[in-house]
Amino acid sequence: MHGPASLGWLLVALCAATGAYCVLRMRSGVEEQRRAAGDEAVMGFGMAAMAVPAAVFTPPSWTWAGYAALFGAVGLRALWTARTGAHHLHHAVGALAMVYVAVAMTVSAGPGAGHAHGGSGLPPVTGVFLLYFTGYVLLSGPRLVPLPGMVGAAATAPVPWGDRPELARACRLSMGIAMVAMLLPM
Predict the structure, then answer these.
(1) What's the pLDDT band for 148 if we cut at 50, 70, 90?
(2) Are 126 and 186 in contact (CB under 8 A)?
(3) CA distance 87 to 153
(4) Domain boundaries, given as residue ranges, for the chain
(5) Cβ–Cβ < 8 Å for 179, 133
(6) Higher pLDDT residue, 176 or 161?
């Protein structure tokens, strides 16, 4: 990833922690939640691997094609499962954005080794993804704040870690923030 190494390491930590929690969420008793958690774990760990600062480790050029294939498969699976719920469309957009980042890194690591978009200014695809994820973050963030009447009601029945909707939303929000941070340097 281009940019300061400290930002890269923060993204690695955030995405790896999110992926690890999503692995714990895969223990849920609800099949749909397990499936979503699995998709999010792959995204979290994949984003963590892609965010490792280039100054520390420069992967071989073929690695980016592998990332593109992985996230392409995740995106196709998310599109297939989107028939049952709209949330999977968000997974598909996230996977498509990661394919875009991987392809851009392939181009920037190629013989020209210049900017991935080849010109000045913001590439249109990057702009669209930035708008989507910025909007997602801005709309999702306030949903984490508990409503005044809901605080006491939530404490009456213990909910297993894998089934806590507020933690799942926090994971999705953190990955949305990480996606914005990964798209900005492009």
Answers:
(1) low
(2) yes
(3) 26
(4) 5-183
(5) yes
(6) 176
